[in-house]
Amino acid sequence: MSDLPPPAMTTGADVRASKRLKQRVSWTATAWLALVWVLLWGDFSLANVVVGIVLGLLVQWALPLPLVPFGGRPSLLGVLRLLGRLTRDIVVASAQVVGVALRFGREPTSAVLRVPLRSRSDLYLTLTADLCSVVPGSLIVEAHRATSTLYVHALDVPTAADVERARRTVLEQEARVLYALASPQEIREAGLPPRHLGGPGRGGFRRADVTGAAAPSGTGTGPDANEGGTR
Asked: What's the whole-model pTM score?
């Protein structure tokens, strides 16, 4: 008879542990963290790469990020429209901020706006917040995940019309994110017109689509959503 030990049995606990480890560790994130580590040291050596990979794995294991479900249907035209409009907004807003900085005789009146979004997706909330912060003159100071609400610091909004325009800009940004990435059902649930060629179609954004008239009840959009102004 053979004296070899019996093969090890894989238990359910082992399978669950392996699955949890795979959910925690992303090789893309590991490579990105390793690259950041190498750039911080400024020396592309084998030792730095290995240490960066090990630290990347440890960070993901010790501080796992929650899984963000995604049930959208990306649209290439929608993504191109989103990026194109973002580039235009950055250029135009940069010129406006320069104009405000060089203007003498009047201090800019800024405000923090409360803007409830229409989507309840964490992913779309995060993308909308990031894209709004990229554009000069607007900065997300707080985001409420439970209510899908953004608090936006807007530069130089002295009148009620300027406040409404800043709020509409945030909602239009969210709409472009939805048309680029969301599924038709998610777009419909947000109260937006059906996607056509990556956007809202020939009619464009109606005022009702971006001022909350079509948003789910209880979102609280409207002029009273302004939290207050600062100088």
From this structure: 0.69
